[in-house]
Amino acid sequence: MATGRPPVTTVDFEPFLPPNMPKVYLNGALIRSGDGAVMQACQLQSEIWPLIGQITKQFPQVGCELFAEDRIYLYQASPESMQHQQMSHCEFTDFAAFRKTDVLYKANFTGQPDILRQVREACAAMLEHYAVASSTPTFLEVTQMQANKGEALRLLKHKLHARRAYAIGDSGNDLSMLQAADFAFAPANADAEILQCADCVVGRNTEDAIAQAIAQIECAAKQ
């Protein structure tokens, strides 16, 4: 399982997953083995604060969410952040309650796509030192440079001594993972850039896309 979400927002569906499944959170910033042990933790360093300050000051209409392992801090609000809070079923914590002991793994800037494009252009020199992804057009997700789903897949392939790595994904923060995989699947309703890099397109992500990908892998293994 590879997600941009923190562990606190995945507890509802994790019981339905295989108990020994490694889990990649926060776009690869936090990786846990099947038994829950931390395999990788890439925290944001203090250098992130000037970037946060510049973006939120220059673009007051842009939201800023800061992800710790057990909570999401709302540094600056936007309509898109409020929608994200409802979608994730997780009550965001006001940044006034930030604990100095908290470790941050991801910063997510939220806003309309055209505004986020301006953010990328205005802060290009600072953003080039980070891994930047967008799981939706209204998100600009920032993690440590080595914290991305592609690096997470390479790590797990090595640790598990796997001969081949398969991946399926539908949005921008999945791109590095699909590029790192030996074989990449994409749902039919994936983003355009994802469809272009996929080795195989299966059904929509609301119509058993993962099951179809697994069936193809199992069929190939029997041949």
Keywords:
six-stranded mixed sheet, 223 residues, three-stranded antiparallel sheet, alpha/beta, 22% strand, single chain
Question: Summarize this, please?
Answer:
The protein is of the alpha/beta class and 223 residues long. The chain has helices at residues 48-58, 79-88, 113-122, 124-127, 149-159, 175-180, 192-197, 209-222, and strands spanning 23-25, 30-32, 38-41, 63-67, 72-76, 93-94, 106-110, 130-133, 139-144, 166-168, 183-187, 200-202. The strands form three sheets. It has a six-stranded mixed sheet with strand order 6-5-4-7-9-8. It has a three-stranded antiparallel sheet with strand order 1-2-3, with no helix packed on it.
Class by alpha and beta content: alpha/beta
Strand order of the largest sheet: 6-5-4-7-9-8
Shape: globular
Query: What series of H and E elements makes up the topology?
Result: EEEHEEHEEHHEEHEHEHEH
Write down the overall mean pLDDT. Answer: 95
Helix percentage: 25-40%
User: Can you count the helices?
Assistant: 8
How much beta, percentage-wise?
Answer: 15-25%
